[in-house]
Amino acid sequence: MTHDLTLPSGRPAAEGLAERAHRDPHRPRFHFTSPGGWLNDPNGLTHWNGVYHLFYQYNPLAPAHHRIHWGHATSTDLVHWTDEPVALVPGTDGPDRDGCWSGVLVDDGGVPTLVYSGRHGDLELPCVARGSADLRYWTKDQANPVITAPPEGLDITAFRDHCVWREGSGEDAVWRQLIGSGIRGVGGTAFLYESDDLRDWRYVGPLLTGDASQKQGELDWTGTMWECVDLFRLGEDEKAGSTDVLVFSAWDEGTTHHPLYWTGHYQGDTFTPTALNRLDYGGRYFYAPQSTRDEHGRRIMFGWLQEGRTDEANAQAGWCGVMSLPRIVTLGADGRLDQAPVPELGLLRREHLRIPAGPLETAYTRLHTVRGDQLDIETTLHLAPGATARLVVRETPDGAERTVVEVSRAHDGSGGTLRLHRESSSLDPTVDTEPRHGELPLDDDGRVDLRVLVDHSALEIFANGRPLTARIYPTRPDEAVGVGIGADGDVTLERFDAWQMASAFTDGPRPLWP
Ligand code: DQQ
């Protein structure tokens, strides 16, 4: 993370941030971004009286992670967002003098209430703020921080971020919260606390602890600290039983690694895990997610798409950080999470382009009818054992820059792989072009339902419910609009539909301080 507040020209980065952000060809147009400056984690997600509230980690002064505020936006359809007044500003002194870090929103008997991490020096401690009825204005508690120190007697790596819920009924109801942490030499953890009033908290103990010594460097390494822990129950309306999910982002010594989730059973003061899985194959490009159950009973999740270009490029662009498209999380038949963008995104679909079904016989064909840098592509493919299908997006006419989404089936037919090749996504040697991959579940027919959403530098891929999120920065963004498909081996195209996507924001720079 950067603290660079000055452009190479010597011009202060705060000058014209929103204008520069608006002009940047890499800026997504149907993903939520901050008006300018810095954006990271989604916070305080709620669906309150029919309105979705998205708060987020925000620095309106520079595209740098420094003295973080809480930005705020609202929506009635999860697609079009209205910027609201900045919700939390770091204090001139006091427990959040150096930043209002991540947290959540809960309904305290009708009073919207934020629980967040106030940062003072290098220390983060839990703070509380009460909101006005419209959730626009927030008053911090005089008694902050409401927990004055991490649990005693433990050598911890960090202590921040909150998941808060009401548990039990009637007189037995209590507030419970998890705070992300890690025990040095042991592993990441989530500390469980309990309270009657959201202010006076009793420490219960670690809910679950990882093993930092195992698989270090692997894609499912659980890290030395768990950021942004999020506990929720899926299938709670089903008689067949429910599954509890504990999402966290693996962190180690300042490096943000990747989001993971445990499935298992939360009961009493412990979480008994069944399995550990990767939440998104993009790693740090879908980081610090938070979810909420909306008024329709859907589990809606957002994550932070970090940048893959340099701090200097971010400073010049005037903005950085993208919020993922809202996704619905459900439990798959295999006990893992299925993820899909909310259907409301269909509101932005414009020109519909379709290509005929049939065997995919070429190694590669550029499509002449489908092109663009704001696209929603849905295709269903059938892969024979050993076959590979590829979808190319953001390709320049000479093919020098191109991004390849690849799905393949093992020779024995047993399973598959989803791969994103970014090696040729950009000719700029300073941007991250590392490939990404993950396991693709396949049935006996080798059917792949593939959805690819292209929004300038933001790319979200869903293959049989498994997401892979990333960023791409072609050097000739206006020309990198080509789309193509191809296959090796026996692949049948059942359907291919693509839509041009409209922008979700009205044209023009947005105020940094709405
Ligand atoms: N970002 C926040 C922290 C959290 C981290 C600070 C995750 O609260 O741990 O902006 O990206």
Automatic annotation (TrEMBL):
Pfam families: Glyco_hydro_32C, Glyco_hydro_32N
Record InterPro entries: ConA-like_dom_sf, GH32_Enzymes, Glyco_hydro_32, Glyco_hydro_32_C, Glyco_hydro_32_N, Glyco_hydro_beta-prop_sf
Hydrolase found in the keyword field: yes
CDD domains according to UniProt: GH32_FFase (cd08996)
Composition bias, Basic and acidic residues: 433-442
Positions of the UniProt region annotated as Disordered: 1-28, 410-442
Entry coiled-coil feature ranges: none
EC number: 3.2.1.26
The keyword Hydrolase is assigned to this record: yes
A GO molecular-function annotation: hydrolase activity
Domain of life the protein comes from: Bacteria
Keywords: Glycosidase, Hydrolase
Domain Glycosyl hydrolase family 32 N-terminal: 31-341
Family: Belongs to the glycosyl hydrolase 32 family.
Protein name: beta-fructofuranosidase
Organism: Streptomyces lomondensis
Lineage: Bacteria, Bacillati, Actinomycetota, Actinomycetes, Kitasatosporales
